[in-house]
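Action item from last week, closing it out:
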Amino acid sequence: MEYLILGIALFVVLAVGGMVALLRSRSGSGTVEAPPETPTITRPAPPAEEEAVVAPPAERAPVAEAPAAPEIELPPPSAGRLQRLRARLARSQSTLGQGLLNLLARDSLTDEDWDEIEDLLISADVGVAPSRMIVDELRTRVKVTGQLSSDQVRSLLREQLVAQIGPDMQRALHVDAHGGHPAVVMVVGVNGTGKTTTTGKLSRVLVGDGKQVLLGAADTFRAAAAEQLTTWGERVGARVVRGPEGSDPASVAFEAVKQGIQDGVDTVIIDTAGRLHTKTGLMDELGKVKRVIEKQASVDEVLLVLDATTGQNGLTQARVFAEVVNVTGIALTKLDGTAKGGIVISVQRELGVPVKLVGLGEGPDDLAPFDPEAFVDAILG
């Protein structure tokens, strides 16, 4: 019985041990596998930074250089200018001079010849009354002297023309400072006569004579007038006082004279607007400019610029301007392109005002002080 119990117990132990061994064999070697790792997401590495390409510096836009100041010119002095321009004047006036000489050199002069001489003088804008006086004097001298040689004819004609032009008239420009103030010159005239150009050329005449000049651009109604005058001033080192386009001309003129006093210049030249002599309001405004200037300095010269080619119409202009601003002198322009030099005689006779300047070309130094004898010699060749 005891052997039976031991046998059953042994059987049970073996059975249990076999089951345990079986279980172990099924689980492999008894090593528990770790759970699979979470997959690592490999992100592509960011591309290596490209080596920075250094672009060549962009070319800088060329910087506009300030325009170089114009070289200041030294104009020639006024003395002898008309003589230097005599050949040019002679070419333009040859019709008058040679026509007179040819007529007077005839063996005998009939009434028709004398009428032709008078017509030639009138056509040259000498004027009816002066032409008649010249013819009457020449006719008397020829009758008394008899037949004249060509030299005698020329001498006689020269004498008469010089006498009619008026060699004793005071033609000096009043452009010297006085009483601690500069001389003030107003330049007046209608549009198209060359007024602003004459103002610029006059500044060259005065600078050439050693004077300090200031320019006033009181022609504020013509867009290019102030620019044009500034160009003239820069070339000779003359300061220009100007205002906005359309501003009051009288205020610009006032400031120019004020600045001229402060700077201690010798001469202030005021370029005024080109006035139509038929416009009363505009002429009154020109008178206002003169009155405003005179609040601080006297106006020493009023130069009326006349176009020699306008002939007798220029006399109408001269009369009206003289009534408004007391013209003291005439600047006769464009005398190089016309055979009507007789306007010198007629305008002086009409106004009792001397021709002081003549324009004989387009060059900057073609404005000359008027010399009666040199003028007549140029006409006669």
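Closing note: Residues 25-55 have pLDDT under 50 and may be disordered.
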